From TrEMBL:
Gene that produces this protein: LOC116194689
Key words, A-Z: Signal
Protein name in UniProt: Uncharacterized protein LOC116194689
Endpoints of the signal sequence: 1-25
Species in which this protein is naturally found: Punica granatum (Pomegranate)
UniProt superkingdom: Eukaryota
Pfam families associated with the record: Pollen_Ole_e_1
Length: 147
């Protein structure tokens, strides 16, 4: 009995090796930042700050035509990241990153030019693509020190 079980295990492992032979893994990452443009001057300066907890959506189309959708939130440094490991033949071809919302009370209005960024993903496995920062502006009037 024991030898029969061992034989089935060996056959199963052999089948697994055959099925995975020739399949190469690929890993990609997309990252970016979300910032509050306190003065609304479209330039990032010392008065501006990162936005923690801002939501970003990343939509990618793979080489095989599959559409994959990711959701990310910024960390304490205002950075969001999405990553995926998949077969090389299924890797990302093109992506769109766009801001969804900012939960910051004082900075919740999306700035101009932050509607979304389309890009081709052509990096080798293990590399990342950086998206330009998304900018939110104050929901109310800008502070007097900005004028």
């Amino acid at each position: 009995m024991e030898s029969e079980a061992q034989m089935k295990l060996v056959m199963g492992l052999s089948l697994l090796v055959v099925l995975t032979a020739g399949v190469h893994g690929w890993t990609g990452e997309i990252r970016g930042r979300v910032v509050c443009d306190v003065c609304g001057d479209s330039s990032i300066g010392p008065e501006d700050h990162i936005l923690e907890g801002a939501e970003v959506a990343v939509l990618c189309i793979t080489k095989s035509g599959e559409v994959v959708n990711y959701q990310a939130f910024t960390d304490s440094k205002g950075v969001y990241k999405v990553a995926e490991t998949m077969p090389e033949s299924e890797r990302w071809d093109a992506c769109l990153a766009r801001p969804i919302s900012s939960f910051h009370e004082g900075c919740s209005r999306l700035g101009r030019g932050s509607a979304g960024v389309k890009f081709t993903y052509s990096h080798l496995s293990g590399y990342f693509h950086t998206v330009r920062p998304f900018v939110y502006r104050p929901a109310s009037d800008v502070p007097s020190y900005c004028m």
